[in-house]
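Bumping my old thread because nobody answered last time. Still need a sequence for this structure:
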């Protein structure tokens, strides 16, 4: 296919997908369809301008065909692919070449119809594919157990989280925690085993702060022992 033909097809195909969820200059959002799940492919129709022109290859990929690399988030794997074209019409096909890696990615992330994926451009021929996580309105809420003086909370709040319940058994640590957050009243001082289910609100994240649950005397320093190779 000549460059002018590709440009013409890009112009025509860009109108085939609604403008919503198109993403940004370096990221495109791709909504998975039932057909994608059934046939293990990923549509990029309407996003051809996001790729190098020469990665739109022949009907069958040859050894020296220009390609792109896609890092599969969560799999620690990078695949090499391109966009094939229809052998009869010569026009680019609507999805990235290869089904095995798509099947593996879908299975790993339990992708289903309606899932939104993010394809991020890292460089001219390098991309990363991940499951898009929508930002919800307001901060994410979490529960902080073995809270100590609140260092985990400090880190979480810097990332937009909000602690709505905290617990620690040590009154001295709890005193420092309350000094650090004097307006809060959600710190429960006492044994975690005494907490009742209805005292713990629903949260997106539950933390159990290091080192209380792995290096404590009650745990017989088992984590430390494993690190030293004695178990």
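Sorry it took so long. Here it is:
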């Amino acid at each position: 296919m000549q460059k002018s033909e590709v440009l013409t097809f890009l112009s025509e195909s860009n109108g085939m997908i609604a403008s919503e969820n198109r993403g940004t200059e370096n990221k495109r959002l791709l909504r998975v369809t039932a057909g994608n799940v059934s046939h293990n492919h990923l549509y990029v129709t309407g996003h051809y301008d996001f790729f190098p022109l020469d990665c739109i290859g022949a009907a069958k990929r040859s050894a020296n065909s220009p390609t792109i690399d896609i890092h599969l988030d969560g799999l620690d794997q990078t695949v090499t692919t391109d966009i094939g074209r229809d052998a009869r019409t010569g026009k680019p096909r609507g999805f990235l070449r290869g089904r095995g890696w798509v099947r593996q990615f879908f299975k790993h992330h339990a992708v289903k119809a309606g899932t939104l994926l993010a394809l991020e451009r890292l460089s001219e021929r390098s991309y990363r594919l991940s499951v898009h996580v929508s930002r919800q309105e307001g901060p994410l809420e979490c529960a902080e157990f073995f809270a100590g003086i609140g260092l985990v909370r400090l880190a979480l709040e810097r990332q937009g989280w909000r602690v709505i319940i905290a617990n620690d058994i040590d009154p001295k640590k709890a005193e420092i925690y309350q000094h650090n957050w004097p307006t809060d009243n959600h710190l429960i001082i006492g044994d975690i085993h005494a907490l009742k289910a209805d005292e713990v609100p629903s949260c997106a994240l539950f933390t159990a702060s290091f080192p209380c649950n792995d290096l404590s005397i009650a745990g017989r320093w088992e984590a430390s022992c494993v690190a030293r190779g004695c178990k």
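The longest helix spans residues 3-13. Let me know if any region looks off to you.
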